[in-house]
Design brief:
By secondary structure, the protein is mainly α. Helix content is 47%, strand content 3%.
């Protein structure tokens, strides 16, 4: 543990030096912000690893750190949907006198859960109708307008590709790799075509 602390301190010193060079050094010596953030992330992850190891060997320390997390983590936004899970006892009779137990309160905790992105297929059906008496033509509802004529994506799919590319800086080839993991084979040129159809005129060029 002492050796790990020394390594950690040396990394922190190096990060401080790089921050100082980024702030006060010549332009050629400045450190890109992305590299700075990556360095800080590594330090924070190492600290979390050590805390997890300590939690595994010290129940008292784990409880204290858990209490500290509850104080510092803040509150989850109220607009998020809540899914309540009730963990109740099986036997509701007093273990001493066998009388019926009555509820006096509850402990409530909230955790942030995430549902991974789920792809689905929107099937549009347009029934056709004809009159048996006159048999004069076929009546059918007009097909809804599409952002990309005869294309696969819905407007929401195109919007997700645009947000991932321009807001999250996720290149199209990486997005194609993400879709491939879900069994959806999309060529990068196909995604580029979607971006070209869905991009606003004011958006930067790809």
């Amino acid at each position: 543990m002492l050796l790990a602390e020394r390594v950690q301190n040396e990394r922190l010193r190096q990060i401080i030096k790089e921050l100082q060079r980024h702030r006060f050094g010549r332009r050629a010596e400045t450190l890109p912000e992305d590299q700075m953030l990556l360095g800080l992330e590594d330090v924070e992850q190492d600290e979390a690893d050590r805390a997890a190891q300590i939690d595994g060997s010290s129940p008292d320390g784990r409880q204290a750190r858990g209490h500290k997390r509850r104080i510092n983590r803040g509150a989850l936004p109220g607009h998020l949907p809540r899914i309540e899970i009730v963990v109740d006892i099986d036997e509701k009779t007093c273990p001493c006198c066998r009388g019926e137990l009555h509820r006096i309160g509850e402990d409530r905790s909230e955790r942030l859960d995430m549902v991974p992105a789920q792809f689905r297929v929107v099937v549009t059906r347009r029934p056709k109708y004809a009159c048996r008496a006159c048999e004069d033509g076929v009546v059918q509802a007009q097909a809804p307008a599409r952002l990309i004529e005869s294309g696969l994506p819905t407007e929401a799919t195109v919007a997700q590709v645009l947000v991932s590319k321009y807001a999250d800086h996720l290149p199209l080839y990486r997005q194609a790799q993400i879709y491939a993991r879900q069994g959806i084979a999309l060529d990068r040129s196909t995604l580029a075509d979607w971006v070209g159809h869905g991009r606003l005129p004011s958006a930067p060029a790809a």
